[in-house]
Inverse folding.
């Protein structure tokens, strides 16, 4: 959940928040500590990431992040979580947004 992600960010028990939305969506607001890596470039961009990192994948509502999570698993990442509800749920929970 977005609440759990917020706590994990505070506790520093998540290494990377990966936002897989398109650039215009990212520019309209994102999680401050997030890394932008659009889903359509994720396969090649993920090669720069640590496969042992604890990664949370977020999009607008959860659909693209679930695809991104599956793709990362296929690439050998094992510590991945999909953020249910995405940025819509994050904003609705009144959690901080940058951008």
């Amino acid at each position: 959940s977005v609440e759990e992600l917020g706590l994990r960010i505070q506790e520093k028990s998540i290494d990377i928040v990966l936002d897989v939305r398109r650039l215009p969506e990212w520019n309209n607001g994102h999680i401050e500590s997030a890394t932008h890596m659009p889903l359509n470039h994720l396969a090649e961009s993920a090669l720069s990431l640590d496969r042992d990192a604890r990664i949370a994948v977020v999009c607008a509502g959860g659909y693209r992040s679930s695809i991104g999570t599956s793709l990362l698993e296929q690439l050998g990442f094992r510590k991945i979580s999909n953020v249910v509800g995405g940025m819509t749920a994050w904003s609705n929970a009144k959690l901080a947004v940058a951008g």
Remarks:
- Helices lie at 2-11, 23-27, 42-45, 63-74, 86-92.
- The CA atoms of residues 43 and 71 lie 7 Å apart.
